Amino acid sequence: MIPISLIQSTAEVLMDKAAIEIPQDYLDGLQHAAKTEDGDLSSFVLKAMLENYEAAKEDRRAMCGDTGVPRWFVKMGNDARVEGGMVALEAALRRATANATNGVPLRPNRVHPLWRTDHDNNVGIGAPEIEYGFEPEGEWIDLITVHKGGLFGTDYRMLFPSDGMEGIKRFYLDTLMAFGKRGLACQPAIIGIGLGGSKDICMVLGKRASILRTVGSRNSDPRIAKIEDEFKELGNSIGMGAMGFVGKNMVIDCNIEVGYCHTGGMPMSVHAFCLSSRRAVARIHADGRVEHRTDPDWFTDYQRRETVEWEPQKEAAE
């Protein structure tokens, strides 16, 4: 049984880490971009952001004034048990969000869409979002917090099978151009593409691809992995760099996730994480151990399964 007090205390640590500490995979990608960028203003922005990250870590302050909208992803081993159940877990994550808003501090960005009511703690109706995933074995819980930019940096289009790969490329490039020209995203960024699913799931796939995959990871389907490499290069060929200035490093990486969709359509979404890619992860074990990492490890073989029944890999190997 995992104590609810341990879940809340771990969640509060994660909120602090996500706001202040850049994940190493993204930092490595950004440093590579800074070394290869030759656009004057893009180079200036990259240099300033890298210096800002160092200052944020040293001063223990949020790396960006707009700390986005905190959200949670919870993945559980099938045998995990939580003190008080799932209602208690959600309450703990909401308390952690409120406490961290005042403690880190984070900007209280959440308001009622009509009345603009603001509780000054990033908690309200449907906020923070809490999404769940499960794995066949284990007594652990993974807590993943992502501080996602909450205004722009996303687009959706219903394509059709006849549009093919050329249609996918066209929408991808149209979206990146709009992000850069209209200031709809803070580049360079991890770009996530969702293909398939229903309209809402398509948006989820793209967002998860951008925020729950690390730089350098590749889809387990080698054909999709090849497209990811191609799209990273394609996104960096349009002549835009940091914050939409002239340059050649707009995309730190491109991640693609797919879901089965209606036979008559091919929905597609494009998401940009942002220049401040904020995520933090911890696994809480049943014996009270807490292991921190930066890779969400969300897209396992089980999460991408195509079969009706699931056989653990060790049995399938036998």
TrEMBL record:
Which NCBIfam families does the UniProt record give?
A: ttdA_fumA_fumB
Q: Which UniProt keywords apply?
A: 4Fe-4S, Iron, Iron-sulfur, Lyase, Metal-binding
Q: What is this protein called?
A: Fumarate hydratase
Residue intervals of the Fe-S hydro-lyase tartrate dehydratase alpha-type catalytic domain = 10-282
Pfam families tied to this protein: Fumerase
**Which species?**
Tateyamaria omphalii
Family assignment from sequence similarity = Belongs to the class-I fumarase family.
Kindly indicate whether the keyword Iron-sulfur belongs to this entry: yes
A GO molecular function term, named singly, is: metal ion binding
Q: Which PANTHER family match?
A: FUMARATE HYDRATASE-RELATED (PTHR30389), L(+)-TARTRATE DEHYDRATASE SUBUNIT ALPHA-RELATED (PTHR30389:SF17)
